[in-house]
């Protein structure tokens, strides 16, 4: 059996209760890339199944891109830990090559297409939730990328509804990336590397904005080790009437 740290299991249980992520009778499809995040997610859900006072089922699904990925070890991992697993083979790589050039849009194309396959698989097989392995560092990176490069204040919610009614959930959203890395290392679980997009396994560089944002956050945290605590609190303390957007300023009174 794997050792899940108390910190991770507590955080996942708390997040689950606070946001109503998984409930009695849910059927949850788990996006399993084989990276440290989704691998931890599988084991966190396995643990939740053992300790939660409600029953739910889940299955891991790996989407391949038609890039000759070697993923037998993912199937082996799931078999070893008695986790149901399915591989959905696609030709995303070929379609991407035809549609876009080798630049940063490659990564968002991959992720949109992959999400599409996961939504369809969930819908076709009667799953009502899709769980993804995003964590707090992902949410903060996404916030800063949108803030600094895309002109939007947006991040990654713990739960949202996709167009087809499927609920997408992020049980690890309050875990730090380093906790997930430590989980994989201490259990000697082999995982796929941390590339921000599958194309990077080949000859495509990490998108400029993402790379810059990651570095920026690292530097900021070195100077202010409490930074993530404050940022997490800020995400729960959104004062919309202090910005420039007109619809939030109607009848705006401030002390
Ligand atoms: N090929 C895939 N098949 C199924 N689900 C995937 C796949 N790739 C990513 N996902 C899901 O989407 C989430 C976010 O993907 P992303 O590539 O941004 O994360 P990541 O940091 O590489 O995570 P991980 O460490 O789990 O690979 C993953 O945690 C996982 O749940």
UniProtKB/TrEMBL annotation:
Signal peptide: none annotated. SUPFAM superfamilies: Adenine nucleotide alpha hydrolases-like (SSF52402). Keywords: Transferase. Gene3D superfamilies: HUPs (3.40.50.620). It comes from the Bacteria. Coiled coil: none annotated. This is tRNA 2-thiocytidine(32) synthetase TtcA. The lineage of its organism: Bacteria, Pseudomonadati, Campylobacterota, Epsilonproteobacteria, Campylobacterales.
């Amino acid at each position: 059996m794997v050792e899940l740290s108390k910190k991770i299991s507590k955080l996942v249980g708390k997040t689950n209760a606070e946001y109503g992520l998984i409930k009695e009778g849910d059927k949850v499809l788990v996006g399993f890339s084989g990276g440290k995040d989704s691998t931890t997610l599988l084991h966190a859900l396995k643990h939740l199944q053992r300790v939660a006072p409600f029953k739910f089922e889940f299955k891991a699904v790996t989407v391949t891109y038609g890039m000759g990925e070697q993923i037998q070890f993912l199937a082996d991992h799931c078999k070893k830990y008695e986790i149901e697993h399915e591989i959905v083979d696609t030709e995303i790589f070929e379609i991407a090559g035809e549609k876009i050039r080798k630049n940063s849009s490659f990564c968002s194309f991959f992720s949109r297409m992959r999400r599409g396959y996961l939504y369809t698989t969930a819908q076709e097989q009667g799953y009502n939730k899709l769980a993804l392995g995003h964590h707090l560092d992902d949410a903060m990176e996404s916030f800063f990328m949108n803030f600094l490069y895309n002109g939007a204040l947006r991040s990654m919610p713990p739960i949202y509804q996709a167009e087809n009614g499927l609920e997408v959930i992020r049980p690890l959203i309050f875990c730090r990336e380093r906790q997930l890395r430590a989980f994989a290392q201490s259990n000697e679980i082999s995982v796929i590397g941390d590339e921000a997009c599958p194309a990077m396994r080949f000859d495509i560089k990490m998108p400029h904005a993402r790379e810059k944002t990651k570095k920026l956050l690292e530097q900021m945290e070195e100077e202010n080790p409490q930074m993530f605590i404050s940022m997490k609190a800020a995400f729960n303390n959104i004062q919309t009437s202090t910005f420039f957007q007109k619809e939030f300023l109607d009848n705006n009174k401030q002390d």
